[in-house]
Amino acid sequence: MKVMLRLTKYLRPNAKLVATAFGLLLLGTFIDLLAPWLLKEIFDKGIANKNISVILALTLSLAGIQVIKSIGMFIQGRSQELVGQNVVFALRKDLYNHLQRLSFSYYDKAQTGQLMSRMTGDIEAVKNFIGFGAIMMLLGLLTFIGTIIVMFFMQWKVTLISMSTIPLLLFVLWKFNRKVGPAWGQIREQMGRLTTTLQENISGIRVVKAFAREREEEGKFKDRNEQNFETNMQRAKLEANAFPLMGFYGGLVFLLMIWLGAIFVARGEMTLGTFMAFQWYVWGIIWPLNMLGWQINIMQQAIKAAPRVLEVIDSSVEIASPAGGGADADSIAGNVVFEEVSFHFPDQDATKDKGVLEGISLKVRQGEVVAVLGATGSGKSSLIALLSRFYDVSGGRLLIDDTDVRDYDLDGLRRKIGIVPQETFLFSASIRDNIAYGAPDATQEAIEWAARKAQIHAFIETMPFGYDTLIGERGVGLSGGQRQRVALARAILMNPPILVLDEATASVDTATESAIHEELLEVMKGRTTFIIAQRLSSVKRADRIIVLDNGRIVQQGTHKELFEEDGFFRNLFQMQDAAAAR
Ligand SMILES: Nc1ncnc2c1ncn2[C@@H]1O[C@H](COP(=O)(O)OP(=O)(O)OP(=O)(O)O)[C@@H](O)[C@H]1O
């Protein structure tokens, strides 16, 4: 319940709307209590005294208050819906914005499907309660209490005895509430898992098909779908057990009231008007109780969904600019110094696990081209990831232009490092927008310049709409090499003083690779460049080559120097040479 109270913060900006809805709700409840009383007066003052004008006046009053109520309820419904939509809008915005700020380490663990289900179904569940369920509950409570008070004043004995089954009804409700809560918790969690299965399946559908695993995937989905079906059926069973019983106890209130009321009227202890009014009032007791079952459902869904939403919002942003804003990164020239850097991934245990990087000391001058070589898993990508603070060093310091990267304004720092990552991701947008992603204001000439350097311009020109051609999600419609070249153009266009190419030409044929390298020679001029590559052809022109093994630098020097040394580099060279000769 505490989480629900936290969510009331989203109601605050809607205070006026909430007050309007609440005020109109009070008015509606008052009218609901007034109407049966007018009916009573029609019987007792109009019919009993055969006074036609009183009957007319009271009937007109009845009609009048119903018109007022209808108008009120219309405005109330609109305000209530607006509150709900405003809440869901603000909550979704906060969640999305927070997702933008969360660090890489969060996404290393998070499941996309779970996040999607929180962003959609869970937020919707919260909205249903805040924007609808809570207010209906309040309306029910007001009507229930108001009705009992009015009836009590009109004829307390009949009221008291008619209500004798209410404790039983409340007991059923209490039991239902206790059991349905955990069921809703399970359902929300299962929906998250179901979405995860769906999302992973769709993202990996090519692998599924390539390995002919459709049947197994169907089975996996079926299992999760069945679990969800069963939990929903258990919940439905709880409803099926509780709701008719509640209806029965509610019906008994009505029956008792008719029976006792008739006796009291016959004995002259109750007027016929009061009896007629009671028939109306009694629904003011029965409907809130009957509706309470559904409202409990809405509330329990929200109670279970809200922590799932807040858990994301509460996840700490581990990597951010220093408090009070960081150093200006605009003047970064590109001198990079690793000082005894060690690194563990956040989910590793620093006391037991071996570091992914250890004792890295390296000075890279502005404009130097450094190639990083090493066996797979030796820590090359991790080394590069520290530059842009995708992760922070665990020990030592990483300086750019004599300033610790942790002291820079984070966005500024990242804008100064152009990265072509190992796995290319392109957005479902035009090729132009994809290239200009990091520099949205770039001119067409600049975009074309970057595309030429990345050896993709000529290809784009052959596409049906040139730079306006839309490419699908993940860049489907382009080959792996073409995608890499678009990503390369995207990094080049940012005009960064530091360029990082993580296997950026791995998917490109040797001829194109060599053409890209020719063009890159000019692009790299004056920029500090880190090239991670397996092919020796890609690192030939590097000023310095660093060889990593198990997270440590084991060799460094020029191509010539390393070739003369016995070690990983020469072995690799000989292997690739032999392979080329075969
Ligand atoms: N998010 C992570 N959490 C924990 N360990 C990780 C994570 N990402 C990578 N690792 C581990 O860190 C080590 C270094 O990985 P890294 O990606 O830096 O290697 P690499 O040299 O770039 O490899 P490759 O050439 O295959 O891309 C590997 O052993 C890998 O298993």
UniProtKB/TrEMBL annotation:
This is ABC transporter ATP-binding protein/permease. CDD domains: ABC_6TM_YknU_like (cd18542). Residues 19-301 form the ABC transmembrane type-1 domain. The chain crosses the membrane at residues 21-39, 51-68, 129-152, 158-176, 242-266, 278-298. Pfam families: ABC_membrane, ABC_tran. Residues 336-575 form the ABC transporter domain. PROSITE patterns: ABC_TM1F, ABC_TRANSPORTER_1, ABC_TRANSPORTER_2. Gene3D superfamilies: ABC transporter type 1, transmembrane domain, P-loop containing nucleotide triphosphate hydrolases. It is found in: Cell membrane. It is a multi-pass membrane protein. GO terms for molecular function: ATP binding. It comes from Paenibacillus oenotherae. Keywords: ATP-binding, Membrane, Nucleotide-binding, Transmembrane, Transmembrane helix. Its main location: membrane.
